[in-house]
Amino acid sequence: MSEVPGRRPARVVVVDDQTVVREGIVMLLGLLPGVDVVGAAGDGEEAVRVVAELAPDVVLMDLRMPRCDGVEATRRIRSEHPGTQVVVLTTYADDESLFPALHAGARGYLTKDAGGDEIVRAVHSVLSGDAGLAPSIQRRLLEWLSESESEPRPTGPPEPPDGLTIRETEVLVLIAEGLTNHQIASRLRVSTATVKTHINNLFAKTGLKDRAQAVRYAYGKGLVRPPGR
């Protein structure tokens, strides 16, 4: 892949909780023109901090990480540092991973079988205002658009499942959209402690263990629909 004359390399931060994977991506990108890896992070909390310090053009973001996962980190980065774009680079291409990441503001989505040239193209695509999507992800979005056009539109809000209250269902939907407890509290105009109580109650009623399971549950129950864009 040749570098475009007059275009400076994109400043990139790599985020992955697996050290060998993270270092491998950094090493791979270091061999390619068009990108300059300026930093790396091992989880979402560190990613947000590194972005605040280095102001990179693009973050290559893993999704399933400890402390702060890639969806929440993406939402925080796009909210707090809108000049930085996010391209997801993950093992997972299922709907429960894809759509929350796009909801959170990711402009690109690649799986880890992507080659170096494909990663660089995605980086420059999102910097140009385009989407940096793997072909398989593009096909899934087209399939979803086709499916959604043929499905009848819901006539009202979904019925709360498994004995959840309306408020608990609202909290669940906001979790599925990638909001933090603080953001949910602000949206619903309640305290963070109240949000935590609702989460504990809905987890107890549904048998859910964490927010990742809550996202899958919300999509599975039809409480959240994937984005059309």
TrEMBL record:
Entry keywords, A to Z: DNA-binding, Phosphoprotein, Transcription, Transcription regulation
- The chain residues annotated with the modification 4-aspartylphosphate are D62
The HTH luxR-type domain covers: 157-222
> Which Pfam families does this entry report, sorted A to Z?
GerE, Response_reg
Segments for region (Disordered)? 146-165
Q: Which organism is it from?
A: Streptomyces rubrogriseus
What lineage is this protein's organism placed in?
A: Bacteria, Bacillati, Actinomycetota, Actinomycetes, Kitasatosporales
InterPro entries tied to this protein: CheY-like_superfamily (IPR011006), NreC/VraR/RcsB-like_REC (IPR058245), Sig_transdc_resp-reg_receiver (IPR001789), Tscrpt_reg_LuxR_C (IPR000792), WalR-like (IPR039420)
What is the protein name for this chain? Response regulator transcription factor
The Response regulatory domain covers which part of the protein? 11-127
